[in-house]
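Table 4 source record.
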Amino acid sequence: MRRCPAIFLVLLAGLACSAAGPLWPLPEDPFEKGQEYPEFVQPTASGQSESALFGCIRNGGNRFHEAIDLAPVLPRSKGEVTDPVAAIYDGVVRHVSRVSGNSSYGRYVVLEHPGQDLAVYSLYAHLSRIEKGLEPGQIVRAGQQIGVMGRSAGGYTIPRQRSHLHLEIGLRLTDAFEEWYRRQGYDTPNQHGPFNGINLVGWDPLDYFQAFREGRAESPLGYIGSLPPAVMLHVFTTRRPDFLERYPELVLPGCEPSEQAGWEVLLSAWGLPLSFKPIRQEDLNGVRNPGDISVVGINREALEAYACRDIIDERGDRVLLGRGGQTLMEILFMPDLRDD
């Protein structure tokens, strides 16, 4: 039986907890029309349809794209796209960025969907316009317009002919993101709080929609459960990431709290946390001191497809966390594990 999270009952008392699949965010659903993805995505300047998809598909496979870029379907007005963009689920507005130059996302909106069995977020970027009055804390309904597709961006220009909707779906890593961000010494301030793109980790939106259409998934939690793990980590700490306060459904049965010395963490090949299991000290492998992290299992074939994420680093017969994996674990286990 599905369980509505308590926060949903408080914030969205007027909305039912629903197991319905996500709605397509644009006026025409390509699945209803039987279209294949080359017919409804917007490629980069390369012209290759794959460049609009999720994964290591940019810069010759060296840059990760954590979204799908959807092409316009309605007639243009004075050369600009006019497609309304709608919420994929009932939810709550969490972040509205109306200044194009403040992010490479341009104008963007982040919604959270507590009505699902896992409170996923959805992000809608490069908007030409955000609906007037749309503010954090506001409740929206699935299918409600939140903006208009466009080509806004910070630091670069998207040509008219490549206007699109950048759509992400996934999870938020930590509420303490600002603390981590300050430690990095970046030249520019974080203007987006915990909804900075670095703090959001998603999955393939196209596969997600297809999973519901094909009956492979009935809910976000069910979908995550279907994703194959590619990395198993042992983390020598009893610190409970605030990630698990938002997503307690990802905690697996393990040892009793009084016996716990660490966590067994499973990640997807691109670094999506799939599960956390509390384990005893005698079950920890490859770690000696509090704060240590060891890689105890990998799926090389899966990782090769997402090599640009640098989740692991193989050095001879040693398998370590790569830079991407280290950043992920630092953000999850805030503050620094070494502070234990």
